[in-house]
Amino acid sequence: MASFVPTSEETVEDQRLYTQARLVEVECLDCLARVGVKKNSEHQTSVQWTAEAQAQCPDLVRRKSAADGARLVHARCPRLAASIEAAVADGRIQIGAEDGY
Amino acid sequence: MADPTTQTRTLDHGTQPERFARGWHCLGLASEFKDGKPHSVEAFGGKLVVWENTKGELGVLDGYCRHMGGDLTQGTVKGDEVGCPFHDWRWGADGRCKQIPYARRVPLRARTKAYETVIRNDSLLIWHDPEGSKADYDILPPELPDVSNREVYTDWIWNTVPIKGSHCRELIDNVVDMAHFYYVHFAFPTDFRNVFEDHTATQYMASKGRPDVAGGYGDADMFLKSEATYYGPAYMINWLEVDYKGFVTEVILINSHIPTGPDSFLLQYGITVKKPEGLDDKTANFIGKKYADMFGDGFLQDVAIWENKAPVQNPLLCEEDGPVYQLRRWYEQFYVDVADIEPEMRARFEFEVDTTKANEFWHEEVAENLRRIEAEKASEPVETSEGVS
Predict the structure, then answer these.
(1) Which site among B5, B319, B329, B341 would you substitute to test the A interface, given the most A Cβ atoms closer than 10 Å to its Cβ?
(2) How near does any CA of chain A get to the CA of B282, in Å?
(3) Which of B28, B172, B275, B377 has its CA 20 to 30 A from that of B231?
């Protein structure tokens, strides 16, 4: 059952554009977890994980068990961040937005 | 499809959900309900009754008696039960009618809607699920260490603001809204990051106040470090470090809400301040009150926007904007049946924006505002002892 229902086709296309378009698959150089990355500009980064990738990243797994439901530790995984930087540096991730986003 | 760059863009208002979110909802400070009287709380399109039993536990039921619809919130607490003002049917916190004083036996079907309750961080939380599931205690918001210890933290300052004409998702949208801190709350966001995962959504934000406007967080001597996590759809813990002229205060802000109808909700926020070393209680409470006022003003700045804005399913974004579509996808998990939750609603998503670029524009604008304010001051007539010159 859908909840907030859009009333136009274009909205569904916007949802796809903003959440899925131009996500580039990046593999962590360390644990090989695969995430989707989008950079609309030099200073803006989105990282879309999957449950499989989360389970594969030792950094996230360790922090999750340590946090134990209390205040969560949300810092990004430094090894994945380095892998993303490497992907930007060798041109695998295009920087830029389609019509503003 | 027509070329979208030449087409007029329209707002898709969409249709609002017919149900209320699944999850833990906060009804307010538990102590407020502990006076031996039944209390009325508007929630989920109806009314709830809340009362304290003889063991000091709080019961929460649907507000209307299953006999003839009497309003239990106007009834009387009798022992562990709440008695209806109409015919004195006595209802227990488990949702069963325990006694009908004028009848030999109670009908077996005399069961009403009871809510599972938890006291967390001094507040009363209840589990709501349109599908009627058992409460999920694994996803309760965390307990804040020492928050109930009045030696360590000040008393809670708890405020409520009824909001009409807005769906509570407007409030949730703020999690990703980097730019509104400048325009609505008068602060430069200097650092901004979001993480959504499972039933939590977090915003990390650092800001400093604008020097050109007062009110809200506008004050050049004010630096905020904020970490705010929604645990489920309606209960946020915001850990704040407020640096005012070098004096750092740890503030806990609870930001919760109860949906009351399809486009109305009750915003509730509570503030407690970690008592700074060496300060007496009076001063610590004064600081607590000051920050409660400041963050209260902040909410009212948001409310003014919400009450006048249009609902929009298809926000148009620019490249500095936060991930509003991903946040709404996360929020959707609380409105669909459990069986219909998609993996991407709960999968980890991270967003980071370096606000340097946006702040370059904003600093220019503020500098211009300050020049204008100076110029206006200079041209104003000055009062002297000889009168206006």
Answers:
(1) B319
(2) 29
(3) B275
**Is the Cβ pair B19, A3 closer than 8 Å?**
yes
Place of tokens 């899925």: A20
ipTM beyond cut 0.90: yes
Alpha-carbon distance A58 to A64, whole Å?
10
Asked, for residue A10, whether it belongs to a domain, the answer is no
> Quick one: B222 and B329 in the same domain?
yes
Domain annotation covers residue A9:
no
Please check whether residue A36 lies inside any domain of the structure: yes
Chain A partners within 8 Å of B352 (Cβ): 44-45, 76
Look at the alpha carbons of B257, B260, B262, B264 in this order and tell me if their dihedral is positive or negative: negative
Q: Which residues of A touch B348 (CB under 8 A)?
A: 47, 49, 54, 60
How many Cβ pairs within 8 Å bridge chains A and B? 126
B65: containing domain = 23-139
Q: Which of A84-88, B91-95, B291-295 has the lowest mean pLDDT?
A: B291-295
Hey, is the C-beta of B142 within 8 angstroms of any chain A C-beta?
yes
| CA pair distance B134, B140, nearest whole angstrom | 13
Question: pLDDT digit string (tens) for B139-148?
Answer: 999 999 999 9
**Cross-chain Cβ contact B195/A74 below 8 Å:** yes
Q: Do B117 and B187 reside in the same domain of the chain?
A: no
Tell me the shortest Cα–Cα distance from B257 to chain A, in angstroms. 19
My answer on whether B108 and B181 are in the same domain is no
Whether the CB of A50 is below 8 Å from some CB of chain B: the reply is: yes
Whole-Å CA distances, A56 to A32, A52, B193: 8, 6, 23
Tokens at B128, concatenated: 């709501």
In a domain, B15, yes or no: no
The per-residue pLDDT for range A39-83, each reduced to its tens digit, is 988 888 999 999 999 999 998 888 877 765 556 667 788 899 999
CA–CA distance, B291 with B379 (Å, rounded to integer): 36
Residue B149 lies in a domain: no
Indicate whether B244 belongs to any domain: yes
Query: Closest Cα of chain A to B249: distance in Å?
Result: 19
User: Where residue B187 falls among pLDDT bands split at 50, 70, 90?
Assistant: confident
The answer to whether B231 faces chain A, any CB pair under 8 Å, is no
The per-residue DSSP string of B185-222 comes to T-EEEEEEEEEEETTEEEEEEEEEE-SS--BTTB-TTE
Domain-embedded: residue A57: yes
- Co-location of B126 and B161 in the same domain: no
Interface of B with A in 311-330 (CB under 8 A): 313-314, 316-321, 323-326, 328-329
Parallel, antiparallel or unpaired: strands B46-52 and B39-43: antiparallel
Is B350 in Cβ contact with A72 (below 8 Å)? no
